[in-house]
Design a protein that fits this description.
Elements (H helix, E strand, L loop, with lengths): L7 H12 L13 E4 L10 H11 L5 H16 L5 H15 L4 H16 L5 H12 L3 E9 H11 L3 E5 L1 E4 L2 E6 L7 H14 L7 E4 L5 H4 L4 E5 L3 H9 L4 E2 L6 H32 L1
Parallel strand pairs: 1-2, 1-6, 2-3, 6-7, 7-8
Antiparallel strand pairs: 4-5
Length: about 290
């Protein structure tokens, strides 16, 4: 107001505004993006397994259930996780349990369990890589076989652009027990990235992909730049032959490091089935 003496808070406010350092917003780089696998790349272990363990702490199933599923997945992993029959069994077994579960329940529990169990398992080095792309004005997506609802929770908690994940069919907010297509695994990840690039107008030659597993070679080979993160032996060898950067954020004894990819594999089906069992019980209990 003209003629009125400014109050002390107003003077302080004006002084603070004048002293503020203005940082120019990042200019968007809409042609380029980064794609990150989740299990053992962005997060230690398998996200769906951590989700299942979070359900276990809520008494939704027993540790004995989880152990049985883990043993079954160990056999699945060792006998060849690229075998289409094995993948089909994994898909059908998990979906048989999740049928009838409300999508909202998965999202709510995913948010709770991420904060309780998963947040501390994010690799700081990988998170920094993702942030570097965001700081450059690029969009960053997670690409994972984990159900899309859980993948979105992880992406949101990390401040990323979004996620590509396995899509389960729903009707009226409830899972039907069928997938839309197949698990987002191996070649399906590359197809998802290719489809997203078409939709978003991305130049894949300017994009970067990150993974720990040779299973993701179709996705890694699709983009202009590929980076091996905590790689399994096959991916490490491939990366060396093709001069791809290799970054290993794991610590501890070599035996522990070597076991991590297997542990992630053990979690994939075990977690899916165990989570399905727990959610099925939750739904029936209501």
């Amino acid at each position: 107001m003209r003629g009125r003496q400014a109050t002390r808070p107003e003077v302080a406010g004006e002084a603070a505004a004048r002293a503020a350092v203005t940082v120019a917003p990042v200019e968007p780089d809409l042609d380029a993006a980064a794609f990150f696998d989740v299990d053992n790349t962005m997060m230690r272990g398998a996200s769906i397994y951590h989700f299942a363990r979070g359900l276990a702490t809520r008494g939704m199933f027993t540790s004995s259930d989880l152990f049985k599923f883990a043993v079954g997945q160990a056999v699945f992993r060792l006998r060849g996780n690229e075998n289409p029959e094995h993948i089909a069994v994994a898909r059908e077994t998990a979906l048989a349990f999740v049928a009838g579960t409300k999508v909202d329940d998965v999202v709510r529990l995913g948010e709770e369990i991420y904060d309780e169990v998963m947040a501390d398992r994010i690799w700081g080095g990988t998170r920094a890589l993702a942030q570097s792309h965001l700081d450059a004005g690029q969009r960053v997506w997670l690409v994972t076989a984990t159900p899309i609802e859980l993948a979105r929770v992880i992406a949101q908690r990390l401040g990323l652009t979004g996620a590509l994940g396995t899509v389960a069919e729903t009707r009226d907010g409830v899972y039907t027990g069928r997938l839309v297509g197949d698990l987002l695994h191996g070649p399906a990840k590359a197809e998802a990235v290719r489809a997203l690039a078409r939709r978003e107008g991305l130049d894949l030659t300017r994009c970067t992909a990150y993974s720990d597993s040779a299973n993701d070679l179709p996705m890694l080979s699709l983009v202009g730049s590929a980076v091996a993160i905590n790689p399994d032996s096959e991916l490490r060898e491939h990366a060396r032959k093709h001069d791809w950067p290799i970054k290993d954020f794991r610590t501890g004894r070599k035996a522990t490091m070597a076991a991590l990819p297997i542990a992630a594999g053990v979690g994939a089906l075990a977690g899916s089935v165990a989570a399905g069992v727990a959610l099925r019980r939750l739904y029936r209990g209501r």
